[in-house]
Structure formats: structure tokens, C-alpha cells
Amino acid sequence: MIPYNTMVVLGGVALLGAAAGPIGALAVLRRRALVGDALAHASLPGLCVAFWLVGERFLPALLLGALVSGLLGVGVLAWLAKATRIKEDAALGVVLSVFFGLGVVLVGILQKRPGNKAGLDTFLFGKAAGLQWLDLLFLAGLALVGLTLVVALFKEFQTLGFDRDFAAAQGWPVARLDLLLLALIAVLVVVGLPAVGVVLVAALLITPAATARLWTQRLHRLLLLSAIVGALTGAGGAWLSSMIPHAPTGAVIVLVGAAFFLLSAALRGASWR
Fold first, then answer.
1. Which of 101, 102, 93, 119 is nearest to 38 (CA)?
2. Residue 213: CB partners within 8 Å, gap ≥ 6?
């Protein structure tokens, strides 16, 4: 019999994975996959600053700080790529290293404060078991909103993903749709920080989408299969991490996702076109 608290955690992380799969698939189609990685690493300083301002581990405030910092990092990345001679991959490396290094320093400083019980270091690799009931409701609600937007705007995202020029010619607000997709990626990355962690949350976006891509070329099937694989990855990883003492949740979730991908590649990769 699975304990009630474990079932709550599994349900919350499964919903997170179900939302991450389709959003990650759209990000891959729009070649925005690495934006999630940049957002995740750049969010750590904002998370620390939010804790310092609030004075306690209040999850909505921490995630808001992480979101602001992550978007700032993406803004710096875009500026470096456009206003300097630095290529986008080099700019990505600069942003990731600087923001993440600053965040690690701030985590170390805050963890050494007298009487501090923040547990901010758990945001590096994730610890779903430490989430409370209200935290999970908050995270699940945000994930459900993101999933609903993907379903509601399926036709628009489909056209944008495969032919941006055609979408613009049809008079669709492609810039706003791109901005909305970036916002969905940002929210999903930030929501996934407590469970998967800063270092590995981008893998929750990319791996289910890559796995589903091996099985289908139709977008509606890709999104559905990504959601299923994402949910199984999140719930399976969270359950396994609860069974293994001292195992970081994020790392186990990523390994479960990698296992799904390798199995799919073995069964379908050689024959897929």
C-alpha cells in the first residue's frame, strides 16, 4: 500500500511531467530547447534573492524570484547574441556559467546563516519528497494551466512550429505566439525546480519529446505521447527516488526518462525515418 503522502507527490510530479512533455515538444520544434536550460540555470540567483527578501521558504515567492531571474538571463542571452560578435552557443555558455555560479555562491551564503533551515540546496538536484500539500497544489495548478493552453492553441502552435512565414502571412500574431511559448517554457521550468532541480529540469522538457518523436511524426500524436511519457517519467522517477535512500529526485527522474528514450531508440530508432 503506497502511503498517502507518496501518492500526493507522485500525482503532482506526474502532472508536471505531463505538462513538460507537450511544451517540450513545441520547444524542440521551434528550436527553443536550450532556452529551457538557460532559464533553469539563470533562475538560481533569483530564487536565493527571493528567499533573502521573504526570510522563509515560501514557495510561490521563491518561484517568482526564479522566474524573474531566469527571464533576465534569457534577455542577456538574446542581447549578447544580437549586439555582440559572440555566437549564440558561446553566449549560452557565458550566461549559464555566470548566473549559475552566482546562484551557487548565494546558496552557500544563505545556508550558513544562523538558524537557517531553507534547504535551498535541494533546488540544485530536486527533492519532491520535501514538498508540502499546498506546494503540490500550487505546482499542479500551474502545470495544468500550461497544458490547457497547449490544447487550446494547438492549431496556432502547429502552424508556428512547421512554417512561421506561412503563419505570419495568414495574419497570425507570430511574435505573441513565440512569446507565449517562451512564457510556457519559463513557467514549466520554474515549476519543475522543486522536483527536478536547476541542473536537470531542462531534461524533463527535452527527453519525453525526443522519445515521442521516435514513435510518430504527427503533431497531435507527438504531444499526446510526450504527455504520457512525461507523466510516466516524473511519477516513475519520484517513486524510485523515494525507494533509494539519499537519491536526488531530479537525477532519478532524468535516468528514468533516459531509459524510456533508449528503449524507444532500440525498438524504433533503427527503422524510423
1. 93
2. 25, 28, 222
Q: What is the pLDDT of residues 99-156, one digit of tens each?
A: 989 988 888 888 776 655 556 777 777 776 666 777 777 777 877 888 888 888 888 7
Cα(19)–Cα(226) distance, rounded to whole angstroms?
9
Which three cell numbers mark 246?
A: 539519499
On the CB side of 134, CA atoms within 13 Å amount to 4
**Tally of CB atoms within 10 A around 61:** 16
Could you tell me which CATH class the domain 4-269 is placed in?
A: mainly alpha
- Name residue 185's amino acid: I
Q: How many other CB atoms sit within 10 Å of the CB of residue 173? A: 13
The set of cell numbers assigned to 219 is 503533431
Residue 121: exposure state from Cβ atoms within 10 A (0-12, 13-18, ≥19): middle
Nearest-CA neighbor of 250 among 258, 241, 261?
241
Are 205 and 185 spatial neighbours (Cβ–Cβ below 8 Å)? yes
Alpha-carbon distance of 167 to 154, in angstroms, equals 13
* pTM assigned to the model: 0.82
CA dihedral 177, 75, 197, 26 (to 10 degrees): 20
User: Residue 46 to residues 11, 53, 178: CA-CA distances in angstroms?
Assistant: 28, 10, 24
